[in-house]
């Protein structure tokens, strides 16, 4: 069971209220709380809006993160949410709370680096003194005629995919926490410090007409469980792609891989399109099942295990 103070539990409480407040904004809201982003429709164009924060000693440790690393990661995790929706990054606002001794310019340098990489424009923000570093970023992405991909659109018989091997970030964190001279600065630790948002893949999946997706931020098992809950279905995973140097447990429940998890009824077409586009081959991991109680991973009953924060 998830902790009472876990993010998922608290979001579950808040989501029962639905969109909070009143006013003209409700006329433009298409998708509210519960997905990787909200979706609004303005002048017949859809936009995804989301916010994510990273907090010191929860999402990163300054023992092995530089201020620039913090800024970069804060942007990347938000871009990953837009990727899950299939939205093109457009605008960002940035809020930073940090002790006075913090090198804010270096955090901003990391933010600028990630914004340049992912093609998003920062248009404002706020700063405050604080007892530890917290960076909160809000982003807006455009769909430009494409339908948003949602957690609630898994369908019976669909084939489940991920966009890459799993467990690398958790393995990298393990190596950073228990350093060994032979494993410093590995690809796994790089995946933890500088996560890769699959924005090109997300946009392309949306262009292909894929309608069900989310990003794997808390671990495959718990995120697929949430997706199955939203879609009122089950799943059967018969393959787990494990990043080199990671364990099977890290691949199933490690978290912060930020690969995309998606389903399609046209698996061969999607695979061929990815190859033609020059993107990494998506990896088949299993099948969507009609029965919501039928949830298995490698032949065993699945549990919603993952990174809780």
Report on this structure.
This protein is 32% helix and 25% strand. It is α+β, with helices and mostly antiparallel strands and 309 residues long. It folds into 2 domains: 136 residues, 2-Layer Sandwich (60s Ribosomal Protein L30, Chain: A), CATH 3.30.1330; 151 residues, Alpha-Beta Complex (Phosphoribosyl-aminoimidazole Synthetase, Chain A, domain 2), CATH 3.90.650. The strands form 2 sheets. The chain has a 7-stranded mixed beta sheet, with helices on both faces. Strands 1-2-3-6-4-5 form a 6-stranded mixed beta sheet. Helix 2 packs parallel to helix 6. The longest helix has 19 residues.
Topology:
Layout: H1 7-15, E1 29-31, E2 38-42, E3 45-55, H2 67-85, E4 88-98, H3 104-118, E5 121-129, E6 134-142, E7 159-162, H4 168-177, H5 187-193, H6 199-207, E8 212-215, H7 220-231, E9 234-237, H8 248-253, E10 260-264, H9 267-277, E11 283-289, E12 295-297, E13 300-301
Parallel strand pairs: 4-5, 9-12
Antiparallel strand pairs: 1-2, 2-3, 3-6, 4-6, 7-10, 7-11, 8-10, 9-11, 12-13
Helix pairs in contact: 2-3, 2-6, 4-5
